[in-house]
Amino acid sequence: MYLFLDVANVHDQFVEGSSSATYEVFNPATDESVGKINCARETEVDAAVAAARAAFEPWAATPAAKRAALLNKFADLIDANNAELVKAEVKAMGQPATVAGGFIVPATAQTFRYYAGWADKIEGQAFPAEGDRLNIVQYEPIGVCAGIGPWNVTISTLSWKVAPALAAGNTVLYKTSEKSPFSVLVLARLVKEAGFPAGVFNIISGDGVTGALLASHMDIDKISFTGSGPSGRKIIDAAAKSNMKKVTLELGGKSPSLVFEDADIESALTGNSQGFLFNSSQVCIAASRLFVQKSIADKFIDGLKARFQSLDGAVGDPNSPNTFIGPLADKAQLERVLGYIETGKSEAKLLVGGERKGDKGSFVQPTIFLNPARDARIYKEEIFGPVLSVLTFETEEEAVKLANDTSYGLSATVYTGNTARAIRVASKIKAGTVGVNAPFLPSMGSPFGGYKQSGSGRELGKEGLMAYLQAKSISISLAG
Ligand code: NAD
Ligand code: MN
User: Which GO terms describe its biological process (predicted)?
Assistant: First the structure.
């Protein structure tokens, strides 16, 4: 099978890239090859940018209600094609079908509906005349916007960028990860089916080289990136060295979970086992550093070990309805996670797991390490896999200090039965999202993003829309 990259909807068809660069994708549950994608290079990127540029003014001038209608239609098509999208995602990155079909696909459609609702509610401001001046502010789209995403919640990441960008009147180019390209190519077909005008919503396939071409392009006005910290740095650098395009970054995390002695223990156990292991812990907000209050630590850690052991039985074929934990996304991710586990064995006490599961596919046992040193790699670095570090604390003050002992700041969770403490601790944690008594769950209306090195800017909610608009202040002389 050979897949085609969608250079631009001007062609109204999928076109094959001009370069010989391809990327082969393997099913991480079976190790079988499941297809190749073309990687867009300069010719394709330039063509897509030119199409988006040509489409920009007409799209920005399209009545908001019409933009909204197209976004809603696209959302309906996403739901109608749930099964095909799930199949595409499962074979590329091994996400359990129940997760993809039950959560990711519906959430993607919902994001498009949510931002369709914003399209005709973009307001300006007017101020009482000052002297002989009337000041008004209007919000205008930015222009041609690029999005680059990772492979862990592929189409949902696309929706967080593309839906607000289009609602606000921008045109877009989206490149997803080379590790999970197929679901986005299904969406490319739906773009056409929904009837978006040519050049408004472009999808290109490719790897890091393609991404770098977008980041350094002279005619892209904004780039929104979700992925690893090191790639995020390269994006800022490329933006600075090219046309100073605006940059939004959603990067990684090493999020803390704090369990206080007054917590509901069952919820805390569920959140730190099932919650943490969701999507094989390939989740940017996964709470991978767990801190338990000493007075309950022995009992809690025993309970957690039992939960991890029983969830080991839910690791398996992502197509099975009984599977909760699929494989890691690919061989590279498997090697990376196993590398951390090996390092961890000399940095901490292995409590449970610690091995690859089986000899086929990229499966890993849910793993817990106890008491790593504060400079241990497994404690400091994002692993993006089912490897949890557990430490203990005595006081609330110490807990907050440990939670903030990281260069990241994407998320945190606090488990306590004391509402005042929950709010106190949530307010002291340097992170953009905090869950209380359950892992944080993104919701359409609430801004999502990171403190510190977890990124800059926010997605979702009104802030996610404003990220695709720029303010223009107009001062009108009333004299004469
Ligand atoms: P990655 O940085 O390797 O790749 C992300 C994307 O960037 C891919 O599409 C890739 O092709 C592209 N890319 C690679 N090099 C590039 C370059 N030099 N210039 C431009 N684009 C380039 O990350 P990944 O392994 O695909 O994803 C995992 C990471 O994503 C984790 O760190 C995770 O925490 C993060 N993530 C963050 C969020 C969030 O919202 N904060 C959500 C999901 C994942
Ligand atoms: Mn096309």
Answer: carboxylic acid biosynthetic process
Whether 160 is in the pocket of ligand 1, judged by its Cβ within 6 Å, is no
Residue with tokens 């909204």: 68
Counting ligands in written order, which one lies closest to the CA of residue 205? 1
CA–centroid distance, 201 to ligand 1, in Å, is: 21
176 and 151 in contact (C-beta within 8 Å)? yes
Q: Which CATH number describes the domain made up of 256-449?
A: 3.40.309.10
At 126, the pLDDT band (50, 70, 90 cuts) reads: very high
pLDDT digits (tens, 9 = 90+) for 341-383: 999 999 999 999 999 999 999 999 999 999 999 999 999 999 9
Residues in the chain: 480
What CA–CA distances, in Å, run from 216 to 162, 200, 395? 20, 21, 48
Residue nearest to atom 26 of ligand 1 (CA): 150
pLDDT band at 13 (very low <50, low <70, confident <90, very high): low
Q: Quote the tokens at residue 437.
A: 């008594």
Q: Rounded to an integer, what distance in angstroms lies between the CA atom of residue 451 and that of residue 455?
A: 6
Provide the Cα torsion 136, 142, 148, 152; round to 10°.
30
Q: By the 8 A CB rule, do 211 and 239 touch?
A: no
Q: What is the pLDDT of residues 445-480, one digit of tens each?
A: 999 999 999 999 999 999 999 999 999 999 999 997
Same fold, 2-251+454-474 and 256-449: no
- Residues contacting 239, CB < 8 A, separation 6+: 215, 216, 223, 245, 246, 247
pLDDT of 19: 83
- Weakest-pLDDT range from 6-10, 215-219, 254-258, 324-328: 6-10
Calpha distance 95→445 (Å, rounded): 26
- Whole-model pTM: value is 0.96
Ligand 1 near 101 CB (within 6 A): no
Give the helix/strand (H/E) hosting 42: helix 42-60
Q: Where are the domains of the chain?
A: 2-251+454-474, 256-449
pLDDT at 130: 86
Q: For all residues of the chain together, what is the average pLDDT?
A: 95
Helix (H, G, I), strand (E, B) or coil at 143: coil
Is there a catalytic annotation at residue 250? yes
Distance 203 CA to ligand 2 centre (A): 8
CA–CA distance, 366 with 277 (Å, rounded to integer) = 7
- Nearest atom within ligand 1 for CA of residue 148: 9
Q: What is the CATH class of 2-251+454-474?
A: alpha beta
